[in-house]
Amino acid sequence: MQVLYTRILHKISRPSILEAMNAVQEQLLKLAETMDLGEMTYYQLSKDLGVDHPFKVKYALDQLVKKGHLLRNLQTGSISKPKGDARTTGLINIPYYGEVNCGEALAFANNQIKSYLKLSPSVIGSSNLKGVFALKAIGSSMNDASINGKAVNEGDYIIAKKEEAYAPKNGDYVISIIWGAANLKRFHRDIKHRQILLLSQSTDDLPPIVISEQDANELGAYSIAAKAIDVIPMSV
Predict the structure, then answer these.
(1) Domain residue limits, the chain
(2) Is the pTM of this model over 0.70?
(3) How far is Cα of residue 45 from the mean position of the Cα atoms in its chain?
(4) How many Å apart are CA 222 and CA 48, to the nearest integer?
(5) In whole numbers, what is the pLDDT of the chain averaged over residues?
(6) Separation of alpha carbons 222 and 196, rounded Å
(7) What share of the chain is helix, strand, coil (3-state, %, to 5)?
(8) What confidence tens digit (pLDDT) does each residue in 26-67 have?
(9) Cα–Cα distances in Å, from 180 out to 97, 104, 115, 161?
(10) 2-80 has which fold?
């Protein structure tokens, strides 16, 4: 099977075949606008697109993923187009806004992009990159958390997603703005006492940050910026 695949790749070096392969890529991109290509086999795709061999479809898909035109989720097998203007030369560009405290809210949040975190497409599980950004974790108060199954250690990058009208649920990991400073904690709303508890999850016994709903509403002392959805570990 591998020998056959190698022979086919060798043949597509001719200009006429390369033009045909570009046409296959264009067809796949159009199809990806309406469906998850990972739900179909190479044989099914070749039949639907009128391509004479499944390996040509595989090669075209691999090239589209390599260039960043499509995202392949290695965990779910899905293959889809990235949403939002986040693709560049095969890598995903995630806006990087600076630091977020995993402890006291000290790092100032000025909502200005400082740089971009470049990732290969499969690092981010979701193909919908609209509103996704990165922050660098400072402190150790979330070193026992489980954001997409990962703890947060100092120096790790937090991947967060900003959504319109986001209403956090108890247990969500949220990026909060407390008096203008960014903070990462686990969210809990205490309805009985009309307060918000921002909980640490650490190997150390750390108290929560307690926000009165009155202060949050009247003084603007507190707001939710985004939901933390993943962690890029930096520790070795």
Answers:
(1) 2-80, 87-232
(2) no
(3) 27
(4) 53
(5) 81
(6) 10
(7) 25, 30, 40
(8) 888 888 877 888 888 998 898 888 888 888 889 888 888 877
(9) 14, 12, 20, 19
(10) Arc Repressor Mutant, subunit A (1.10.10)
